[in-house]
Specification:
The structure holds two protein chains of two kinds.
Chain A lengths: L11 E10 L2 E11 L4 E5 L6 H9 L6 E6 L2 E2 L5 H4 L2 E3 L11 H11 L4 H14 L15 H13 L5 E5 L7 H18 L2 E6 L2 H7 L2 E6 L2 E6 L1 H6 L4 H6 L4 E4 L5 H7 L6 E4 L4 E5 L10 E10 L3 E7 L5 E7 L12 E6 L6 E3 L3
Parallel strand pairs in A: 3-8, 3-9, 6-7, 7-8
Antiparallel strand pairs in A: 1-2, 1-4, 4-5, 9-10, 11-12, 12-18, 13-17, 14-15, 14-17, 15-16
Helix pairs in contact in A: 3-4, 3-5, 4-5
Chain B lengths: L1 H9 L11 H25 L4 H10 L1 H34 L2 H16 L2 H12 L4 H8 L13 H25 L3 H9 L4 H29 L3 H6 L7 H10 L4 H25 L1 H5 L3
The chains are: A alpha+beta, B mainly alpha.
Amino acid sequence: MGAEFVSAKGSIGLHNITKRYGDLVVVDDIGLDIRAGEFFSLLGPSGSGKTTTLMMLAGFAAPSSGRILLDGKDISHLSPQQRNLGMVFQNYALFPHMSVLDNVMFPLRVRKYRGRECLERAKWAIDLVRLSGYEGRLPKQLSGGQQQRVALARAVVFHPEVVLMDEPLGALDKNLRYQMQMEIKDLQRKLGMTVVFVTHDQEEAMNMSDRIAIMNNGRIEQLGSPKEVYESPCNVFAAGFLGEANLLPYADLDEQYRRRMGMAPGDCLFVRPERVALSDCPQSGADGNGLAGRIAGVSFLGNIVRYQVRINEALQIYADSTNLSGAREFAAGERVAVGWQRPEDARIIRHG
Amino acid sequence: MADSALRRGREPALFKSENLIYPALAFLLIFFVLPLVWFFVKSALDYDGSFALKLYQTFTSGLFMVVAWKTVWISLLVTALALLAAYPIAYTMSRAGPGTFTLAIICVIVPYFTSIIVRTYSWMIILGTNGIINRFLMFTGLTHKPVALLYNTVGVAIGMTYVLLPYYVLTLYSTMKSIDSWLMQAGRGMGASNFYAFRKIFLPLSMPGVISGFLIVYILAVGFFITPALMGGPENVMMAMLIQRNIEITMDWPLASALSLFLLVITLAIYAFYCKYTDLEKMLGR
């Protein structure tokens, strides 16, 4: 039997990686150190360079400049087949003419495993993704989630230290996606492998990752644990891309308020909707040290109630209130004072 | 649902999609099936004596055996050569960028639409005793006498392969284009060499194109006339040429119709196999 093994290897270094297609810079001088055994996500909108970065790691694209290190060894010029990485592709890329078993055995056969050992290792991987009994099926006879599991088994069957995943859950529906997230995370922990995961889904990235790199326009905007990146975004893009965010620009706030907050032109005030506290405000006009507004809309989302509060002509803010029994409910048109749960919940994102 | 069914119900019967096949079917019946039946019947009636006997005598005669064997064999050779030439061309086209693809498709399509006689005569200029190839060979001193490239099996094989190549290229191309290029990438990413990935992934997935192209080209080759007539020698008489001789020169219509029957049966047999083989696509996970 192939024993489950925990490897201490599988650290990745990207040093000054740039990828150009003609004049177009797709990845712009990024540097990353991914630790062995880490679940690392590259998160960004389409065209942010996250997939290109992954393709350079896999060896399907060559960096225009920079070095890629695997456990300290330069692999920049190795072909994909020399890198020995596991990979799960966006559309699974299962071989349609091969059974589940043959698909999973493919990487083993390439590595010269034959006979019983090959079969046992493949069965171990198929077992791992709970597909025992489906060995003889063709990919098209499986559901999306099952196909996803075959791709996963095929990627880990030869015990790679690093597994690359390119939006592997993109084709699944929401419920299944959450379930697969937990399964992949489980597998990664059990096998102790390094996973580099590309996604544009921020919830997915936060749920699974030890660390996240938020990418935009070929650069890394911010790098950190999900909590760090969510609570202390370093710029407007990171704040807006990860989770819901209220971003109040300097220009739209009144003079007195921004002086009190210490804001400079170009700055933004950032606060998460769940950190906004609404309270009754009987008088018209602000009380001098806070913001006030009128409820413009109420969305009932089940576990939370989202209020849309109009502060002035240009400015509105979202406030999420947990739907607890006895919570104060506001109606559209009511005047409210807008404050923060704690003062530090509102952060100033400096210009540039 | 109900609404669209209603609307379909109101369409004039003439334009119902299943009725649109009838004009083509009528054309085929009047201009292909009827003449063919008439041809066989007339041969049988005109022949004083038993037509069945004539058929028997024909199919056991030495001349028939030789020509039938030549026809089957040269068609097989030409189809195999066309496969060897078409596979790399179609592979390149299916993986090429728009520029290379356009160039390649022009190179394939333009000859396809050019008269077969023009193309055959062009080859005769190239392959002839005083042709480009022989002049080159003699100029470089590789040979002192012209090499016989025309009026023999070599000439027929070259000419027919060339004429039939576009059919094979296009059939293969459409199959190869539908193969997800990520599959080969995935194979290489899992550690396979290019050759191993090709052998285990691309080649099996392209087999439907290889087989259907083989059958199409073979069917066309078996009935070929102009190219073997112009480029072949006395030993390269093919079935279609024999039929033409019997109709126009010796006026032996019963013999011609017996030979035609033979060609028709071969073609239909291959076609039946072709229809059956479409199940192969299911086997390949399509």
